[in-house]
Specification:
Radius of gyration: 20 Å
CATH topology of the domain at 47-199: NADH Oxidase
Order of helices and strands: HHEHHHEEEHEHEH
Helix content: 25-40%
Bound molecules: 3-iodo-tyrosine
Number of strands: 6
CATH architecture of the domain at 47-199: 3-Layer(aba) Sandwich
Structural class: alpha+beta
Strand order of the largest sheet: 1-2-6-5
CATH class of the domain at 47-199: Alpha Beta
Distance between the termini: 38 Å
Strand content: 15-25%
Largest sheet: 4 strands, antiparallel
Length: about 220
């Protein structure tokens, strides 16, 4: 990044009471987010997709390199090609490549090799991570790429939820096929696939509990 100096920070702050209200309301809102496997084909506008991706791209990143590309796909043929290739890999995963322990851990979620949602959801977003940038034919290194792209993915998921849409984090493995189908350059590697859309009216989610305060927080006061 070119050194452009500094400017006053203009983010919002709130009174403690207002902060408490907002923190609790946001927690309650985010706690309603669920991974959804049942998508409706109801369209979602390109404008919404663009806004949620730009929210994700506002994520912090190592040396502000923003080492990501978001491929937003609503082309039916391309989605079908991706589904077909993803299912081929997942079929192998569910028929021997995943350990018994792993298969057992997944039972509660009812997942299998069928990835119909890739065809049905109006959009799929595939996030690519860039371990380096090519600038004027020169390799420029990026930093903390995995962390940076993980944070951006989390912000994307929050933005999708905020827009009243649903998603699912899908990591077909191995996933090099996505680079080929989407003709991505050598410095980009697939990171995560997210279908984005509306849930079907009869969508169900597994009954699960989230860890509580004492399970996930250790205070040092
Ligand atoms: N990639 C497979 C298997 C899978 C793995 C985990 I860990 C999950 O939380 C869910 C699924 C699939 O997408 O079905």
């Amino acid at each position: 990044m070119k050194d452009k100096g500094f400017t006053p920070y203009n983010g919002q702050t709130f009174s403690e009471k207002e902060s408490e209200k907002r923190a609790q309301a946001y927690y309650e809102f985010m706690d309603k987010r669920r991974s959804i496997r049942f998508f409706s084909d109801k369209p979602v506008s390109k404008n919404i997709i663009e806004q949620i991706i730009m929210t994700a791209s506002s994520a912090p990143s190592g040396a502000h390199k923003q080492p990501w590309t978001f491929c937003a796909i609503n082309n039916k043929e391309i989605k079908s090609k991706i589904r077909e290739a993803a299912e081929k890999e997942e079929y192998e995963n569910y028929h021997g490549r995943m350990s018994d322990e792993w298969m057992d851990d997944l039972k509660a979620f009812g997942t299998d090799w069928n990835k119909e949602f890739i065809d049905i959801a109006p959009w799929i977003i595939i996030i690519f991570r860039k371990s380096y940038d090519m600038i004027d034919g020169e390799k420029k290194k990026n930093y903390y790429v995995q962390e940076s792209v993980g944070i951006a993915a989390g912000m994307l998921i929050s933005a999708i939820h905020n827009a009243g849409l649903v998603t699912l984090t899908h990591t077909p493995s191995p996933m090099n096929f996505m680079s080929k189908i989407l003709d991505r350059p050598a410095n980009e590697k697939p990171f995560l696939l997210l279908p984005v859309g509306y849930p079907t009216e009869d969508a169900v989610v597994p009954i699960l509990e989230r860890k509580g305060v004492d399970d996930v927080i250790v205070y040092y006061s």
